[in-house]
Amino acid sequence: MLRIAVPNKGSLSEPSAAMLHEAGYRQRKDRRELVLIDADNQVEFFYLRPRDIAVYVGSGRLDIGITGRDLLLDSGARAEEIMRLGFAASTLRYAARPGTVTDVSEFGGLTVATSFAGVVAKHLADNAVEASVVHLDGAVETAIQLGVAEVIADVVETGTTLRNAGLEIIGSPILESEAVVIRRPGDTAQETKVQQFLRRLQGVLVARRYVMMDYDISAELVDKAVALTPGLESPTVSPLHDKGWVAVRSMVPVQDAQRIMDELYDLGARAILTTGIHAARL
Ligand SMILES: Nc1ncnc2c1ncn2[C@@H]1O[C@H](COP(=O)(O)OP(=O)(O)OP(=O)(O)O)[C@@H](O)[C@H]1O
Ligand SMILES: O=P(O)(O)OC[C@H]1O[C@H](OP(=O)(O)OP(=O)(O)O)[C@H](O)[C@@H]1O
Ligand SMILES: [Mg+2]
């Protein structure tokens, strides 16, 4: 049985469950379920607080987990990132009231409030800045208004929360985060099952990012057409009954599909169809 930690709350929770469901795993129907066994797939899911997941995986109690890169780094746990999942993308950034401080080098003697005290203390030390760090659980933006800190370091996605709090970003990102799969370094006990799990998630990412494109084109133009649709490896080209024409089948990034269809049409391709990919193993 592969033992997997899944976020039970917050920004990571719903997209993690959706991805696991798309990968063919059973998921809990009730948020009060804490553990779920998917016997068919030989997997046991533990629904845990996102912040705690790296600790469980790092301690070796669970084989792998889904968490945020920022939470993994902040935990200091002995776990490493083995796959990027693309969702819950954010940056950790410093912010302050406009006109107060403009660069990290000016933080000396100030107080920085954050939920990521480990990452921030290290970042300040790396920049040779002596500032105090105050750990808060959330709603960090309000710490400046309430006089707890002059600077905050918090998760920024759209920047709306910062703007609403009358704060502005200072300097470049402390780190760029997204949801990741983590594992204890050197833990090869469940290697085959872990690799199969990762292939399933990879399949979901591919199914979400690509569509299958089919079209007919005259044989003399096939090289030009294939240059527009190179696929992941090599497109399939099959003969058509109508001599001089071929059918081409290739995977295309979903975001480029309409533009490529226009370009193929202009080139002379016809019967251009795209279909969704339900699941994939590359
Ligand atoms: N607005 C957001 N957009 C994208 N990612 C986010 C956002 N807020 C938090 N995250 C990411 O989600 C992960 C989990 O963060 P956290 O545990 O604080 O959950 P949360 O979504 O903020 O919920 P809560 O604070 O209510 O528990 C972190 O990796 C963080 O970078
Ligand atoms: O840049 P934005 O798009 O505004 O998103 C960033 C905000 O989202 C998260 O807050 P959350 O709602 O999780 O509240 P929290 O501070 O209590 O964690 C994060 O802590 C920021 O406050
Ligand atoms: Mg939060």
TrEMBL record:
It is found in: Cytoplasm. Its cofactor is Mg(2+). Keywords: Amino-acid biosynthesis, ATP-binding, Cytoplasm, Glycosyltransferase, Histidine biosynthesis, Magnesium, Metal-binding, Nucleotide-binding, Transferase. Gene3D superfamilies: 3.30.70.120, Periplasmic binding protein-like II (3.40.190.10). One of its GO terms (biological process) is L-histidine biosynthetic process. One of its GO terms (molecular function) is ATP binding. Its EC number is 2.4.2.17. Pathway: Amino-acid biosynthesis; L-histidine biosynthesis; L-histidine from 5-phospho-alpha-D-ribose 1-diphosphate: step 1/9. Residues 49-203 form the ATP phosphoribosyltransferase catalytic domain. Feedback inhibited by histidine. InterPro entries: ATP-PRT_HisG_long, ATP_PRibTrfase_cat, ATP_PRibTrfase_CS, ATP_PRibTrfase_HisG, HisG_C, N-reg_PII-like_a/b, N-reg_PII/ATP_PRibTrfase_C. Residues 207-278 form the Histidine biosynthesis HisG C-terminal domain. The keyword Cytoplasm applies. Belongs to the ATP phosphoribosyltransferase family. Long subfamily. This is ATP phosphoribosyltransferase. It comes from Streptomyces marincola. The gene is hisG.
